[in-house]
Amino acid sequence: MKKNLIELCKKLADCDANEAQTRHEVIDIIIHDILAWPRALTQVEEYISPGFSDYVLTKPNGDFLFFVEAKRAGKQFTLPFPHKSGETHCYMPIKTLLTDETICSVMKQVREYCMDTGCEYGAITNGREWVCFKCFEKGKRWDQLKAFVIRGPEFFVHDEIKAKNTFSYISITEHSSLSTNLASAPPKDRQVYIAKDRIAAHSHPITSNRLATALRPIANRNFGVINDDQIELMDRCYVADRGFTQVLSGMRSIIKDSLTPYFEEYGVEQLEDTGKGGAIGGRLTKNIKNSRGGEVLILFGGKGAGKSTFIRRLLRHTPPKWLKDNSVSAVVDLLDVPEDKGKVYSEIWRRLVADLDTENLLNSSRDILLRDLFQDRFSIASKQELSGLSKTGELYNDRLNGLVSEWKRDHEYCAERLALKCTENGKGVIVVIDNTDQYGGEIQDYCFTTAQEIARSLSCVTIISMREERFHNSKIHGVLDAFQNSGFHLSSPKPSTVFLKRLEYTIEILRNPDRRGELTYISDPALIADCCTYLSIVAEGIRNGNSPLNNFLTACGHGDIRLTLDLFRSFLLSGYTNVQEMLDAGRWVFQIHQVIKPVMVPTRYFYDEQLSDIPNIFQARDSRLSSHFTSLRILRRLSKNIGAGSTEFVAMAELRAYFSEKFRMVSDFNLCLDILLRHGFVEANNRLDYFDESVDRVRVTNYGLYMLSDLAFTFTYLDLVCIDVNYFDEEACNSITGLANEEYRLFSERKRTERVHVRLSRAEAFLKYLKQEEQREIEIFDLDIPDGESFGEKLSASFEAERRRVLASAEKQRYNRRN
Prior knowledge:
With about 800 residues, the chain is α/β, with parallel strands linked by helices. The chain is built from 35 helices and 18 strands. It is globular and about 105 Å long.
């Protein structure tokens, strides 16, 4: 059907002898086959003049809903060129369309007919292009309305969902889609212009800095997740001090990474890591001393909080002496196991057996297996399968060998026997099922059910780790006993302490000729010295509590230590990091612009939100009704609640009502809140890291406060994100595009100072556009904003202060390199 549509439109463009019939076939496919207009409710007649066919979608009572006029053969519609290649549809002012004589004549005829018949919506088409519009609206001049322009049949093929949601029979009759898409309601119906699509070098990569080749394997080993075999790294660099806070200048309070009221209601206990496992270590010791098995403990923690590292350190690397002497632990890591129930189940039991078989019994002789492990089944088999057979006979031994192989393959049985042997040896069993939160709800619940089964069958204590946001949608709420505290919450460690411990350890190893080979094969003393100097300078920047390097990385990680380490590695290796200048100076005072770019675009010349760990806070996200300031307004609204009470959470109903009543931007609000949750600018009471209707209360995080108070207003951030913005003004978009292309030309010619001037001009153009948009919204929504408190005023003040510093820094640079 869709293939036929494209082929028919090609025939239509060739204007063959059957043009009229072909045009009707095209329209029939679109309105009946794709949009599902019922033929019984679609009238096809000729009204206005010969060659014009009228298609009228009607209600069952005969009232007209939508009038479509098919233009006769002749020249095509003359439409303005698309803003970007591949554009299938757009909004366009009716006033602009009326400047074409052909379109003007037909639109006016359709409008006159619609007004005579009371039909509110109409369209004109030549079989290929379509112009859909509202024919009248109270309080509005007709030519001030916008039309929905379809540039070709590709819209109905490649944007089929949009086509159906706008023009299908169900959408028109049951969802009032014509009113939603064609009626004017500021600031709807605004054409979107995208700068990055017209920047030729937008995907240009940036090479790493000159030390990156030497540092990359070191960074990947020492600044990532600590593996089981990295015993010394665990001992030297593990951070037990958790529950960090971050003080942001100008903020009235401190937000801690701690339990939310939602989890307190379930009796979850805040875990203080004393180095011996805190409360969870005490609970394990108590259960084993009292021979209390069959219990499941849940270790909660945010994404990247270090749950796996905490468990491995507690049970493997440096366990408390009593636990080490009196328990056997099995850690089942499901990180690399596919999301399949059968595979998850078999892998849990297989890995459980491997860890519990501390004496390697399963690889011992048959006699030892039968005596020490399989004696119960062997006893029964001797009375049944092996009864009457000579123990020295071939048949007896063949049958017994088969039974032993069968018993060894029965992992559940082997685990039970191994656990029993541990108990007989005076040792309790601790089983950990780790990284279950990578799975969807169904598999995660299945893992928990399996954990309960293991706890019962092995009479052991089972620990299952889980991110807080995964708990809300699971079915395990009932197992958390508020009186027994079977849930424990692990907060994130202080990022600066994590960085410093690992930097100091790495530098120590690199400076030791006898141990240097553990990290690198590089033998050049000068290169090793440069690496050590560079890492020492970075460590000093981290050590300075007010350093932009420390503040930026800590804020952007928002408690996710895994992400924070990823960002730190990006900074260390990025071609934007001023390595040579640092080495020449021997010391360095980091400025915010020297940190933002290496982290936001470590390997690219231009910013792309989809490829960056840092989102664009100014992005207008809803395609119909949106603002560049929705995300900032959410953060500002939430920040007003800081210090207002013990929870600092704001009800979603209250927050959504404000944006609905004040701005009528519910969809944009939902999309922006989803981004804010996913990136950690705000957190939900139930710790979901995405937006859906189950999010009932939210609060701003340190990251959100940092964005609101600092990051969003810095020159470098604005300079980067302005490339990837949905603009509502074509002139502003063209200006950003032109300046971006000019900057890249200067980059290619290595004209650093001139390039900085162009970047300043681009940021200034972006600020001018944002101020115009904010002023427009102040007038439309009647916003009462005190002097000096608008986003535009703060942006301008910050930019003017930074302009002088940026220019001075550019002049100071002595190296003409590709930055």
